[in-house]
Specification:
The chain is built from two helices and six strands, in the order E-E-E-H-H-E-E-E. It has one domain. A two-stranded antiparallel ribbon has the order 1-2. It has about 90 residues and is of the alpha+beta class. The chain binds zinc ion (ZN).
Length: about 90
């Protein structure tokens, strides 16, 4: 899936990935996650700018940077039914 767009929202419309600061995302893309999320390479928080990720990161979380990611919907058998963002070219 293209790094800058992913299906989002109830109608699955394409929307440009934006983080909470509202600026469009470029490369590298940063994700903030727990040790478990980093270990699984599957994040629940949306993609962020590196600067925004560094503002958000805390003692229990880490920042991972990537040039791209996949938006992955949970499979029927998954216990965790939230979609995840999976970096696919870690930097
Ligand atoms: Zn930002």
């Amino acid at each position: 899936m293209a790094f800058a767009g992913f299906p989002f929202g109830p109608r699955g419309q394409q929307r440009l990935a934006q983080d909470r600061c509202g600026r469009p995302l470029g490369r590298p893309i940063a994700f903030v996650g727990s040790v478990e999320e980093v270990g699984r390479n599957a994040f629940h928080l949306p993609p962020l700018h590196v600067e925004c990720a560094q503002e958000l990161v805390g003692e229990a979380t880490q920042v991972v940077t990537t040039a791209g990611f996949e938006f992955v919907r949970p499979a029927k058998e998954d216990l965790d039914r939230r979609p995840t963002f999976q970096p696919n070219s870690l930097l």
